[in-house]
Write a structure and sequence with these properties.
globular; 46% helix; 22 helices; alpha/beta; 16% strand
Length: 713
């Protein structure tokens, strides 16, 4: 379980830090305020015929639409020109994106519809305001509208499908996150589950298809989402709050546990669970300030009890499933910035009341979404050295190590990501003295004066990995551009960006613990390849015997199930049925007495290869069927697949029982096309059947340790 917290230094990128990128334009702000109602009505007319607008009018009348959506747009623009703060420009763009999200059109039709709405709205603003403005003020209005609406129309090449479980905090977060993600080429597609009735909330979640989502965020206690917490936020609870807090927390958490369990069980993507700072939003009035101060002791006690329960439950659910629930620590912002700042309204209206906390959390949400889409499934980080892992050019003298950057890479390596070097340098002058990384932390080192494109391709070839598995980190934009062009599919990262390193740290935090040291496994792979290439042995059997291969075959237990799903889903070349699965399906196999999941682990004189083969056998009224059989490419040519199939024949299959399997031919699984026919299976109809005795002997170069097990019922 990772705990995600406030970055030590917030990225200063103009996102609500109060900087005045454009000067304030007071007369323009006044013109917006003076024409607020006229503008709101005209903006309403632009979408009056839209089905969603008609539904909102049916629910609350035209006044509801004006107050919920149209007046806030005018207010945000007015605040933008009153203060000069681009925060309000971003609120404008985010709110408009949120409104347009509900339009059901897709593709070109959606773009055309959004463009029409945007152009009509721009005409409204200019038609109403230009007569009241001079030339410079008209130009300032045009500049801000063009930039804000460009953010609204920006569509990313990738979609992030995100489930948001919680209250109006998510409306704040989405308002800030959507434009930021669009700027990175990511279109946020949110689904909101917001019922305050726990049973109804779980029904909403249960009706969703978990496979559609890239990440889930759950905010169970932020603000007053749980009704039973709300009384401790009122002045009348100032005295009794600390004494009632534990009981109130226990009652509230009892309703949250089933929802947490449902998310853990159904979703295999990362699930980010907020703990709570129990922030009160405030307009900074005397009464609001009094309420915040008077209720603080009770709310702090309430948050402490709830946060212990969140941490404990998330850890327990990860043990029951796998490591995919992570805690987002709201209290880290509270400790750093204080409640008065976090709870400050950025704008306060009946239906629009974003606060600073939502703005700050949106930065983390943007990072999480970007990491999940761009990094989480990568296997290798290829890193430059000078001005990337250290400050300076090592060939010219002493350097200062970037320990925080190296620490991020060490964390990734510990989680199973492999590291490599791609540096234009004199290899004799490269030293890691004084750093956290060491030379042997890198599975491949291309330190020379060759093109970095050529070096990257060498690394890919030597490790048998594809460009889509790579992340390339370099401080020079020209090098990143050349590698991106020369190695299509690779992700490039700017080593000078603080946010980029923050995301590498987050990537490590979201990864599950690795079952083995993959760097060492690749090193062993090269050692055994060299042995096989250089050996003086005359025949294949003697050659393989020199490896001293050992195979353990056993039945999977509960702790293996995530690895089973991963190996099946990541294997293309030796995958008999081109199988894909989910953790939930593997868990159902494990619970089914008619099904056995076999694992084979391999090792040799150089070390362990870990789990390399998964075979699933299920007893049906037709016989013993094999619905899944995969083998890692790391052990091709060793005969391990034959030993596993023989084990199924000897141990799981009953006497004279037909053993049935299918081969699904794909462009990628040629290595297993002859496997069944070469192991005694004959084709019958659209499948293969084995009916004889075991017959085949295990490969003589394998030392096999097969744990005793009960045959499937």
């Amino acid at each position: 379980m990772a705990t995600l917290s406030r970055p030590s230094e917030r990225i200063r990128d103009g996102r609500g830090d109060g900087s005045a990128d454009l000067v304030a334009v007071p007369r323009l702000a006044r013109a917006l305020a003076d024409n607020r109602e006229r503008l709101s009505r005209r903006l309403y007319d632009v979408v009056a015929e839209w089905e969603r607008t008609a539904k909102m009018v049916a629910e609350g009348g035209i006044e509801f639409v004006l107050e919920a959506e149209k007046r806030p747009l005018v207010d945000y623009l007015a605040l933008r020109f009153e203060t000069g703060d681009p925060l309000y420009e971003e609120l404008f763009a985010g709110e408009k994106l949120k409104q347009l999200h509900y339009q059901p059109l897709q593709g070109a039709d959606r773009r055309a519809w959004r463009t029409r709405v945007v152009e009509d709205e721009k005409r409204v603003f200019h038609a109403v305001l230009d007569p009241h403005l001079d030339g410079a003020e008209q130009a300032a209005l045009r500049e801000v509208l063009e930039r804000a609406y460009a953010a609204v129309l920006a569509e990313g090449e990738r979609e992030a499908r995100v489930l948001l479980v919680g209250d109006c905090l998510y409306l704040d977060i989405v308002t800030f996150a959507q434009p930021a993600l669009a700027a990175e080429g990511i279109t946020l597609v949110p689904t909101f589950a917001t019922s305050k009735n726990p049973a109804q909330l779980r029904r909403e979640i249960g009706a969703l298809d978990p496979s559609r989502y890239d990440v889930v965020f759950y905010s169970p206690f932020t603000y007053e989402f749980v009704p039973s917490l709300e009384p401790l936020h009122h002045l009348r609870a100032a005295v009794s709050g600390p004494w009632r807090a534990a009981a109130v927390a226990n009652e509230a958490f009892a309703h949250v546990v089933p929802t947490l369990a449902l998310l853990a069980e159904r979703f295999e993507c990362p699930v980010i669970v907020h703990n709570t700072a129990q922030v009160i939003r405030s307009d900074r009035s005397p009464r609001s300030t009094l309420r915040r101060l008077a209720t603080a002791p009770g709310r702090r006690r309430l948050a402490a009890v709830l946060n212990r329960q969140v941490a404990t439950t998330v850890e327990a659910l990860n043990r029951q499933t796998f490591e995919h629930l992570h805690v987002l620590d709201e209290t880290s912002w509270m400790r750093a910035l204080g409640e008065a700042h976090l709870g400050r309204y950025l704008h306060a209206a009946e239906y629009q009341h974003p606060a600073v906390l939502g703005q700050l959390l949106a930065d983390v949400y943007v990072d999480v979404v970007a990491v999940v889409l761009d990094l989480l499934k990568k296997k290798l980080v290829v890193c430059d050295l000078d001005n990337t892992l250290w400050d300076g050019v090592i060939g010219e003298g002493a350097v200062r190590h970037y320990l925080d950057r190296q620490r991020a890479l060490v964390s990734l390596k510990q989680k199973g990501v492999v590291l490599a070097i791609n540096s234009k340098n004199d290899p004799g002058k490269v030293r890691f003295d004084g750093g956290l990384l060491r030379e042997d932390d890198f599975v491949r080192r291309e330190i020379n004066w060759d093109s970095k494109v050529r070096n990257t391709k060498r690394i890919a070839e030597s490790l048998n990995l594809k460009a889509k598995d790579f992340v390339f980190v370099d401080d020079r934009p020209d090098e990143r551009a050349m590698v991106a062009q020369g190695v299509p599919g690779i992700v490039t990262v700017d080593a000078t960006s603080e946010r980029a390193w923050r995301r590498l740290e987050l990537w490590a935090a979201l990864l599950e613990s690795s079952e083995s040291d993959r760097t060492e496994m690749y090193r062993q792979y090269h050692q055994r390849s060299e042995l096989l290439t250089q050996s003086a042995a005359e025949d294949e059997q003697e050659l393989l015997a020199n490896l001293e291969l050992r195979v353990q075959i056993r039945e999977a237990d509960a702790a293996d199930l995530k690895r089973v799903a991963e190996l099946i889903n990541r294997t293309n070349q030796f995958n008999l049925q081109a199988s894909r699965t989910t953790f939930a399906e593997v868990k159902s196999w494990h619970a089914d007495p008619a099904t056995t999941i076999l694992l084979a682990s391999a090792s040799d004189r150089f070390g362990s290869n870990g789990t390399v083969c998964v075979a699933v056998a299920r007893r049906t009224d037709r016989g013993l069927e094999i619905p899944g059989f995969v083998l890692s490419c790391r052990v091709f040519g060793y005969g391990i697949e034959r030993a596993v199939m023989n084990h199924i024949k000897r141990v799981l299959r009953r006497s004279d029982e037909p053993l049935l399997a299918r081969l699904v031919v794909t462009p990628h699984n040629a290595p297993c096309h002859e496997f069944l026919s070469s192991n005694g299976f004959s084709r019958e109809g659209d499948g293969f059947v084995f009916r004889g005795a075991v017959g085949e002997a295990d490969p003589p170069w394998l030392a096999i340790d097969a744990a005793p097990m009960a045959a499937a019922s």
